[in-house]
Specification:
Number of strands: 14
Largest sheet: 5 strands, antiparallel
Distance between the termini: 18 Å
Structural class: alpha+beta
Bound molecules: flavin-adenine dinucleotide
Radius of gyration: 23 Å
Helix content: 25-40%
C-alpha cells in the first residue's frame, strides 16, 4: 500500500534544523512523548517524530512550504490543554509548537486592541491588559491555554453570556497557509465588508486551514465590582426553567452555570471539604458585574424572586472575598475532580438554552437505557452542556466497548433538540466519527472543498474534524 505521508528522515531533520535553528528542534524521545496527547480524557497518544518551536513567522512559512513539498504532516500545538485531541499528531511527522512565539506585541488603548503572538497564554494576556486598565473578558476555563489555541478552537467558557466567545474578539489575523504563503486579514477596526471573511473562517478551524502567527484582539472595559450567587433547587428542571426569565431582566449576567448533585459529591471528594447546600439536587451559579455593590445586590434580589417562583430554596451570596473565591474555585475544579474520580469521557453539546432541561432529561434516560452513568453541568446561560459518561460498575474494557453507542445516542439527542455536537471544544479527532449526525453530505462536502483549497497536499493537521 502506498504510504500517505513521507517519514521524517535524518536528511529531513537536517533541513528542518536549517529552517528553524538548532535550538528550536527536538527529536528527543523524552520530549516528543510529552507532545503525544492533550487533555482529552481518553486520548490515544500519538508521538511526533520531531518537534519544532519556531520563533518567527518567516520560519513557519519556510517550514510549511517544505513540509507541503515533501508531504510531511504538520500538527500545530499551543499549550495542549485541548479537549478533543486537536493537537495530537495522528500521522506522526512534525509537531509545530507555538510556545516560543509568546510576545504581546502591542496594547493599543485608543483602539481597544491587543496584538499578540499565538503562544501568549490567556493568563499573561489578561494580566497585561488589566495593567493598562482594559480587559480581555473571556474566561475559557484553562488560563494556561494559548491565544492561538483559543482562536483555533473558538474557545468559549463561563463569561460567554455577556461577552460572547473567542470569535467575537478576533478582529484580524496573520496566518501562514499550508503552502507557505502568509496572509493578513482584518485589522484594528470593528467593521469590515471587504470580501470573504477569512478571519472568521480560520477561527475555529482547529489548525486545519492555516497556522495563526499573530492575532488582533478586541479589548473592553469592565465594571468595577463582581459578585457570585449560588442558588440551590430541588431539581434540575426547575433550575433551568428559571434561566430564560433571569436573562429577560434588563441587566445581563456575566455567566450562568448549572450543576447537578452528582457532580457536587465528586467535587467535595476531590477538595475534601463540604460545599454549601450540598444536599440539594441542582444548583445555578450566577456571576454578575456592576458599578456598585448595591447595583449587583438589587439584581440578585430580582433573581432571587424569579428563582423562588421556580422552587429555589434561597439565593446564597458569599459574605467574604474568601468565600467567593472558594465557590468559584469549586466550579473551576469540576473537570479535574471528575477526571480524578473515574475513567470518563467529555461531551460538550450545545442546545438552545430553552432545551437544556429537556436535553439533560433525555440524556439521563439514555444513560439508564445503556446502564452507564452520566453526570451533567455546564453553561446554562448559553446552552452549552458538559456531560461526563463515567466508568462505574463495569470493567474499563466493557465500558470502552459500549461508550461509542452511548455517545452516538447523546449526540443524536442533542441534534434533535436543535443543537450542535461541540459548543466550545471542537471536533478534533475525538468527535469526528459523530460529525455526520449533525451535518449532511452537502455541508461536509463544502467543508472538504475549503480544506483542499487551503491545503492541497493535506499536510496541515490531517485527520482532524473529518477525513479527506
Ligand atoms: C481544566 C480545563 C478547563 C477547560 N475549560 C474550557 C472552557 O471553559 N471553555 C473552552 O472553550 N475550553 C476549555 N478547555 C479546553 C482548552 O483549554 C481550549 O480548547 C483551549 O482553547 C486550547 O488551547 P491550547 O493552547 O491548549 O491549544 P491546543 O490544545 O494545543 O490546541 C488546540 C487546537 O488548536 C490548534 N492550534 C493551536 N495553536 C494554533 C495556532 N497558532 N494556529 C493554528 N492552530 C493552532 C491545534 O492544532 C488544535 O487543533 C478547558 C481545558 C481544561 C484542561
Amino acid at each position: 500500500m502506498k504510504r500517505k505521508y513521507r517519514r521524517v528522515t535524518h536528511q529531513i531533520i537536517e533541513e528542518l534544523t536549517t529552517i528553524v535553528g538548532r535550538n528550536n528542534i527536538s527529536t528527543n524521545k523524552s520530549e516528543t512523548e510529552g507532545y503525544a496527547y492533550d487533555e482529552t480524557p481518553l486520548a490515544i497518544p500519538h508521538v511526533p517524530q520531531v518537534i519544532v518551536r519556531p520563533t518567527d513567522t518567516s520560519s513557519i512559512a519556510k517550514l510549511l512550504a517544505f513540509a507541503s513539498e515533501k508531504r510531511i504532516p504538520v500538527t500545530p500545538r499551543g499549550a495542549g490543554t485541548g479537549l478533543s485531541g486537536g493537537c495530537t499528531p495522528i500521522y506522526g511527522g512534525i509537531v509545530l509548537s507555538l510556545e516560543r512565539m509568546n510576545r504581546i506585541l502591542e496594547i493599543d488603548r485608543d483602539n481597544f486592541v491587543a496584538i499578540v503572538e499565538p503562544g501568549v497564554t490567556l493568563s499573561d494576556l489578561c494580566s497585561q491588559v488589566e495593567r493598562q486598565g482594559l480587559s480581555y473578558p473571556l474566561y475559557p476555563g484553562e488560563m494556561t491555554a494559548t491565544i492561538g489555541g483559543n482562536v483555533a478552537t473558538n474557545a468559549g467558557g463561563i463569561n460567554a453570556v455577556k461577552y460572547g466567545v473567542t470569535r467575537h474578539h478576533v478582529l484580524g489575523l496573520e496566518a501562514v497557509l499550508p503552502t507557505g504563503e502568509i496572509i493578513k486579514t482584518g485589522g484594528k477596526f470593528v467593521k469590515c465588508s471587504t470580501g470573504y471573511d477569512l478571519t472568521q473562517l480560520i477561527v475555529g478551524s482547529e489548525g486545519t486551514l492555516a497556522v495563526v502567527t499573530k492575532v488582533i484582539l478586541k479589548l473592553t472595559t469592565r465594571p468595577a465590582k463582581g459578585e457570585v450567587a449560588l442558588i440551590p433547587f430541588a431539581n434540575l428542571q426547575n433550575a433551568i426553567n428559571a434561566v430564560p426569565e433571569i436573562l429577560r431582566l434588563k441587566m445581563t449576567p456575566t455567566g450562568i452555570e448549572f450543576m447537578e448533585r452528582g457532580i457536587i459529591e465528586i467535587v467535595e471528594k476531590h477538595l475534601d471539604r463540604e460545599l454549601p447546600y450540598h444536599d440539594y439536587e441542582a444548583f445555578l451559579m450566577i456571576i454578575m458585574e456592576g458599578e456598585s455593590e448595591s447595583e449587583i445586590y438589587e439584581y440578585f434580589s430580582k433573581v432571587d424572586q424569579i428563582c423562588k417562583q421556580h422552587g429555589a430554596i434561597e439565593t446564597m451570596i458569599p459574605g467574604t472575598e474568601r468565600a467567593k473565591r472558594e465557590l468559584l474555585d469549586a466550579r473551576e475544579k469540576l473537570y479535574p475532580a471528575i477526571r480524578g474520580f473515574a475513567p470518563m469521557e467529555i461531551v460538550d453539546v450545545v442546545v438552545p438554552r430553552s432545551e437544556i432541561a429537556k436535553f439533560v432529561r433525555r440524556v439521563k434516560e439514555i444513560a439508564e437505557e445503556h446502564k452507564m452513568p452520566v453526570v451533567a453541568y455546564g453553561h446554562a446561560g448559553d446552552g452549552n452542556v458538559h456531560l461526563h459518561p463515567i466508568c462505574l460498575n463495569m470493567s474499563k474494557e466493557e465500558w470502552n466497548r459500549r461508550l461509542p453507542h452511548l455517545m452516538s445516542d447523546i449526540y443524536r439527542a442533542g441534534v434533535s433538540f436543535g443543537g450542535a455536537i461541540s459548543g466550545e471544544h471542537g471536533i478534533g479527532c475525538d468527535k469526528k466519527a459523530y460529525l455526520s449526525i449533525q451535518m449532511d453530505s452537502a455541508h461536509l462536502s463544502i467543508m472538504k472543498t475549503i480544506k483542499r483549497a487551503f491545503d492541497p497536499n493535506n499536510i496541515l493537521n490531517p485527520g482532524k474534524i473529518f477525513d479527506l
